[in-house]
């Protein structure tokens, strides 16, 4: 086997899809007996929508969810004011998706899993990793049932309590974002409209909120409890909280589908790569849920790593290409952790800062600029959408290939268009398989040498 992916959350499933379409032999293993049942990571940011467009699941994702409603603030059983959750971000030709989508995490994972199956991929449930050993040729992974699996590479996408990370001995430094305990649950509730995200604050700083989950008949309940309170995630505990914070009666909570308690942390793994093993998603970075950055940053990890593993395993690229995963993603995750913490503490507004369209890799060793006075789009930047000769760029980018704008080429694995949109500025641009500008020049001179780094 080429790659063993540990964890069937959004990170592992996204990576599985990307590897499957590259012809890489990969298996996703999951400790649980089924996909995660909760709504936890419900925000799909615009940049992740672009990734899902490329992977062929955006239409299903959009059909499964909807836009975020405004918040309605309540006090003593009365509505006292409406608040938009996000500062507006205008869509344009280069960024056609500008608003986050709300999709319950369980539904996102169902869609990703179905897409993986379409590509011939597989998820093996009930496989709990207990340890691993690696050598010069691969990794042997041990499971709780006494069986083992062997792969050239292993990717740990098994969450914040990652068994793989612990087996590697990789530390994860962090801080408590908020001293208060939090609780999140999926519930059915009578007596509330589904037009608003209903918020019920108390004078002691604790808050209960009920957000209608788009595409379902449930609400996601989030509670910031008073410090020193012990969370109770039972149905009776949930009902007691609703009765204590809102004008609703306990019996108005008619069903509890899933619940969990947590204390918000921001933490970053010391390393994202140890030999033939990579950390991705929550196994590599833990975010406060504020701002909706955790799931999205995790999907970006998978998207970054997938094409690099494909280059090494299928195109003959040197193993050193895989070092750029940690180089690019650890710095990015650190920035997103600061952002999530800032949103949680009220220091950063949700909006342009949180849609992830401005993220890039300008400082990366893979970003090569050959122009003397570059303007417009720079190497390392996200490649904007646009139109060339009637062809939409996102349509041209879609798939596991590279895309060249502004020159012809016969190089394998590269699709060429005769020009770049004016918004890019002058030059020739080579777009990486993950939608970032890898190389730019006045002409195509030097292009073959750059691509040679990824093709043996």
UniProtKB/TrEMBL annotation:
One of its GO terms (molecular function) is FAD binding. Its cofactor is FAD. Residues 2-339 form the FAD-binding domain. Keywords: FAD, Flavoprotein. InterPro entries: FAD-bd (IPR002938), FAD/NAD-bd_sf (IPR036188), RIFMO-like (IPR050641). It comes from the Bacteria. This is FAD-binding domain-containing protein. It comes from Streptomyces roseochromogenus subsp. oscitans DS 12.976.
